[in-house]
Amino acid sequence: MSKQKMDERAIGYWKANISLIGILMAIWAFVSFGLGYLLANPLNGIHIGNVPLPFWMAQQGAIIVFVILIFTYAKLMDGIDAKFDVNE
Q1: What is the share, in percent, of the chain residues with pLDDT greater than 70?
Q2: pTM for this structure?
């Protein structure tokens, strides 16, 4: 394989990786900051147990979503690795 072709594949791989990271971080930012702070007033009427939804999202929900996003990242990166033939 030529050096130019390998460079193009490497650039494509990192663009896909950075794009995926950006999307997942935007989701996490929306859940933690958006639901926990920016939309707190409209969502205060919704309760999980005895706790308002924005407080719950800021304290617990963002952590749970972050863990889910870690597993999502791992699963999607397996696909990207296979697509660019850099998998194990």
Answers
A1: 99
A2: 0.83
